[in-house]
Amino acid sequence: TNLDSAALDFALPFIQRQSPQLAYGVGWAPVAYYACMAGCFAVLGFEADRLPGRGLALTGAMAALLSCLVVGSAGGAAALVVGRGLCGIGSGMLLVAIGGELARSVAPAQQARAFGVAGSAIALALLVAPPLSHRIASAGSWQWLMACSGFGIALLAALIRRLPRAPRTTPVERRTPPRWITAAASGAVVAGLPVLVKAGLQLDAPATHYAL
């Protein structure tokens, strides 16, 4: 999903040229992605130790796959923004699931190395994405890029389904986050969503130029 995000961000100029009806949503697409991903971190991060990692990762992969369909078939700027927000939610779920599973399954002395490997995979995706995105979008259209992303995420979901289910945590391992933190994080996400939706709905309207 990080490869998908970086590749699409790099392909935004191609979207503006090849699909003018989506041009108004190009600036909001990365905002929707990162805002929704951060919202998932805020809401789910404190609960990662108690959430089923396999199920959460599979749900996140399905959300990211659905976003590829929404963005790839977008007929307007609002669909582009909503689709990228959905991908941000899926990415957030996947990263929270990965963090929780690493914390549960890796010995404390090896956790720094495990998170380093995960970080290296993310860095590699960010390095590979620009040239890959440029080649695909230049050879055909930016929709081809979404098709490739969809194929990769579908493969990811298939691999997640083959993972063994993690054992349930014992009551001793369960930790409840401070209620005020959970409430504040949830409130911030809920307060920000109407603003994001309103902005997305207004993107389909033609631009208005004001003369001084």
Structural descriptors:
disordered C terminus; 212 residues; 8 helices; mainly alpha
Walk me through what this model shows.
By secondary structure, this protein is mainly alpha-helical. The protein is built from eight helices and no strands. The chain is globular and about 50 Å long. Helix 3 runs parallel beside helix 5.
Q: Outline of this structure?
A:
It contains eight helices and no strands. It has 212 residues and is an all-alpha fold. It starts with a helix and ends in a 10-residue tail after the last helix.
List the helices and strands and how they pair.
Blueprint lengths: L1 H9 L1 H7 L9 H17 L8 H20 L4 H29 L5 H29 L2 H20 L17 H24 L10
Helix pairs in contact: 1-6, 1-7, 3-5, 3-8, 4-5, 4-7, 5-8, 6-7
- Summed over residues and divided by their number, the pLDDT gives a mean of 77
Shape verdict: globular
Number of helices: 8
As a percent range, the share of helical residues equals over 70%
| Biggest sheet details | none
